[in-house]
Amino acid sequence: MTDLLLQNVTLIDGAGSDPQSGMSVLVKDGAIAHVGPASEVGQPPVADAIDLTGHTLMPGLTDAHVHFGLVGVNAGSYDDDDNLVTYTLGAIDNINIALQEGFTTVRDAGGLDPAFSRAVEQGLISGPRILPSGSPLSQTGGHGDHRGRYDNSPQVSIPGVLAATALVDGVDSVRAAARQQLRLGATQIKVMASGGVMSQMDKLDSLGFSVAELRAAVDEARAAGTYVLAHCHTSPSMNNALDAGVRSLEHASILDEPTAARVAELGAFVVPTLLVIERLAESPEAEGVSHYSAMKLEQVRGLMPDSVRTAREAGAAIGSGSDILGERQSGRGGELVHKARLLGPMGAIVSATSTNARLFNLEDRVGVIREGYEADLIAVAGDPIVDIELLGDAANVPLVVKGGQVVKNAL
Ligand SMILES: [Zn+2]
User: Fold this and answer.
1) Active-site residue numbers?
2) pLDDT tens digits for 138-170?
3) 115 contacts: CB under 8 Å, gap ≥ 6
4) Residue 342 within a domain
5) Which residues place a Cβ less than 5 A from the ion ligand 1?
6) Which of 15, 204, 331, 373 has a CA-to-CA distance to 363 between 20 and 30 Å?
């Protein structure tokens, strides 16, 4: 691998420090070798040099809530008239797009078989580092039960290809399902702890799983050295999840102050998902939003911004997740644009870099520009602190480096 010198940038380190202008970054063997003033870091021909005058260099973005495998409408894994080849190509397309948009590490929040993540590691497909959850676990009639009311057929996964939601009831079944996902390569376990917007048989404020069932998933995750993320829209569901030891609360749409204080005290995370809510609300027909879902969507949309503020005031860690669905998932950086309205541009950037890295237990490898870290770097044409909207359109991200490899260069 050739060394790489990125010169004359304004640097945003991902840790929340003030941007620094006139900086250069030297990349060696896939890692960040030296960060400093342009004059000090070295000159070509020591390394392949890219002059980035006028650009901002940031850590590669991260997304804690992707669904690369949910290429069909309504979070089903694939549509009836598709086949597994179409499905697989659709998922790979989503994986490619995320990297080209500047996302270098993501956590799949369910639906993508871990085999895709291994295919990226092996260099067979181009994509971000993927932390897969495999099949999410849902109770019968919960958010992950996509069957019609009178359809009792099982939801079938094809291990190695398709990770449909596992419908499990009772402590022993949850335990077995968690073990199975870990065996297949899940790096954390996803559970559905409340009703959802796009599911037709549950109310938003229904609870998914008993605390004992959730605890079984947490015990198994901990035994494997990892943790559980839980889909929860409401405070009662978040409290159940926290009682069980869940670490990552997804959506966290209707968060009251006492619950936010508990999140902070326990060192847990909330991962609001603002972009998907806006997308679904903008074009409900195209996104397949039923009348029932539209009602639930409005409730969530009205309250999620307040919940983000409540989390911030309580000092809770706030991760960044887009939750976008379907085919050709693009515009992922829009999550930061929405987040910036609540946390400011730097707050949105820190959330999508170093905070997510802590959530992923990768804080010593990714999420900041620091010597010894993975060389996951993006250049933005302009200054995202002045204009965060730049990150909403990947055309403004002309350079993407992952693990020291230039994977996009449109300079
Ligand atoms: Zn989701």
Assistant:
1) 190, 323
2) 999 999 998 989 999 988 899 999 999 999 999
3) 160, 161, 185
4) no
5) 109, 323
6) 331
